Amino acid sequence: MDKPLKTPPPYAIASVDHALRAATVLQLEGGLTVSQLADRLGVARSTAHRLLAMLVYRDFAVQDDQRVYHAGPVLELAAHSRSQVSRLRAAALPPLHRLVDLLDETANLTIRTRDTARFIASVECARALRVGSREGMVFPAHRTTAGLLLLAELDPAELDDVYAPERYRDRPDDRPDLDRLRPELARARRSGFAVNRERSERGLVAVGVPVRDPGGGAVAGLSVSMPRVRYEPRRLRSLVAALEAAARALEADLAADR
Question: In sequence order, what DSSP letters do the residues of 79-137 get, joined into one string?
């Protein structure tokens, strides 16, 4: 049995949210100055400075001689992993912004690590009622649009390995029902897109397509998220067409950057 959907806390603490987002940015992308972090979070420079000072104190960040902050011992990732994610995110931002301009809905880029999906880039639309930024958030892969698309790339043996029962010995409720999941993945593989109707969060619908490397393997998922009340099934074809155009543009940029 799957665990409940994620639900945003009714009384979010902005300072905690900012600190967690700052730590995520440092972990995924590497060096940032105080000004750069302030711009990313949409906060004052003094606020960004206080956040970084606390992260340094708790070993979540370190500062180099040029006053640039990096992930500290608590968050350290392999350098090549951080570099790959950073390049992917940087290449995705222009297509994401174009998607938001075109569709006026929030757009996201997501990667998969084993059975989890991590949002590495998110651009919000300007509507009052909108899906907020998911950047840095981690969900079970089978509950997200991009996660379904990336899981669909696995052969049966690989999927069985990701969801091997022994990996869930201490958390059996987190393991999805593979007999139900496999047909969904087959549909996503055949159609080339996936639709998430409130699988990850109540009141949210997302549509996504895969982003492929020059060898044809899917490296990420590109999606748009919207409130359920604004999703119209008759628009699905146009949403998928816009997403596919954005994915092809991103793929071209990634290929040129090799």
Answer: HHHHHHHHHHHHHHHHHHHHHHHHH-SEEEEEEEETTEEEEEEEE--S-SS-PPP-TT-
